[in-house]
Design goal:
Blueprint lengths: L3 H8 L17 E4 L2 E8 L18 H23 L5 E12 L7 H16 L6 E7 L8 E9 L2
Parallel strand pairs: 3-4
Antiparallel strand pairs: 1-2, 2-5, 3-5
Helix pairs in contact: 2-3
Length: about 160
């Protein structure tokens, strides 16, 4: 039987990608008590292509928001891999978004809204979270955005 969140994804026409494999020596997620920690997910689409580049240079805000949305989809894919059932999500507690940006770029929060908006779209109030949006000079594999998550889960 399909869970509530999976049904919501289907109603929105969203298909989760396969949970990406780590690109270095770390695990994609860890569970401690009722907390699920998801490692940083880059802006990699289901087709394997990565949205690359720097905001304020070759990447615009709208493309950055789409890149952040890909990160959020990968977070949900990792949560599905970790939990088996997305309905175990009690609350997204925190997203930390890293934006590959030029020194003059200051709209990091607008970019990370791509991830935040997806969480609320899919999870409703369970998707509302605390957040940081940080500009950085580069990200793994040239990714435009990376987002990690801390999620409260049920047993």
């Amino acid at each position: 039987m399909t869970g509530t969140i999976e049904a919501r994804l289907a109603a929105l026409g969203i298909t989760l990608p396969e949970a990406p494999n780590p690109v270095a020596n770390y695990v994609p997620y860890a569970i401690s008590g009722n907390l699920l920690f998801i490692s940083g997910q880059i802006s990699k689409g289901a087709d394997g292509r990565i949205v690359t580049g720097a905001l304020g240079d070759e990447v615009g805000i709208e493309a950055g928001q789409q890149a952040a949305r890909l990160c959020a989809l990968n977070i949900l894919a990792q949560a599905k891999a970790a939990l088996g059932d997305l309905d175990r999500i009690v609350q997204v507690l925190r997203l930390t978004g890293f934006v590959n940006a030029t020194a003059a770029f200051t709209d990091h929060p607008k970019v990370v809204n791509g991830a935040s908006d997806l969480m609320v779209e899919v999870l409703g109030d369970k998707g509302r979270h605390t957040r940081a949006a940080v500009g950085v000079s580069s990200l793994p594999l040239g990714s435009a955005v990376e987002v990690d998550a801390t999620i409260a889960i049920s047993a």
